[in-house]
Amino acid sequence: MQTRNYLLNNYYVNVLMTRTTDTYVSLADRVALANSNGADYFVSIHINAGGGTGFESYIYDGTVSSNTINWRQILHDTIMSRIGSAWNVSDRGKKRANFYVLRETAMPAVLTENLFIDTSQDLSKLNNPSFISTLAQAHADGIAQALSLPAKLAVKN
After folding, report:
1. Is 143 helix (H, G, I), strand (E, B) or coil?
2. What is an example of a Pfam family matching this protein (predicted)?
3. pLDDT greater than 70 at residue 134
4. What was the pLDDT predicted at 153?
């Protein structure tokens, strides 16, 4: 939600959310929503689990457009530039996988895995409002840079 709010407050963009409450939306419904609304970019933001630490991003492991590759590079690098050394977050890399939301969307798509909820050092960051704000803004700015979104100019009084 913070990523959406930051995008809407700082850039000229329309944002379509698959959910805004803590409810489950099926993978098929997420993809159908993006595809039926003609989304330009699909970004799926997750928190990882499984005993690791750090940040990683995924694109589909099949054939993808050059925009998919380039936009993921920009998003990943923007996020890591904000959380890497400043928050001591390890870069687990830019990966490819056969995830449903990456495979079935009709537009460039990326999935980010933002730290591990079951690792104490990552969980402490995920519980820190300042870290979450930094992470959300990094996602928003990476998306904006990838899509060349025009920034809203601050109004001076």
Report:
1. helix
2. Amidase_3
3. yes
4. 86
End-to-end CA distance of the chain: 29
CA angle 131/54/4 to nearest 5° reads: 45
Enumerate the active-site residues. 113
| DSSP H or E run through 97 | strand 91-97
Residue 113 token pair: 């895995």
HSE-up of residue 18 (Cα within 13 Å, Cβ side): 22
List of residues 6+ apart from 79 with CB closer than 8 A: 55, 57, 112, 135, 138, 139, 142
User: Would you call 113 helix, strand, or coil by DSSP?
Assistant: strand
Partner residues linked to 95 by β-bridges = 58
Sign of the dihedral defined by the CA atoms of residues 146, 34, 1, 27, in that order: negative
The closest of 152, 156, 136 to 4, measured between CA atoms, is 136
The two structure tokens encoding residue 54: 């750090």
pTM of the model: 0.95
Residue range 71-79: mean pLDDT, rounded: 99
Domains, in order of start, for the chain: 2-16+26-147 (3.40.630.40)
Q: Which of 67, 66, 68, 26 is nearest to 57 (CA)?
A: 68
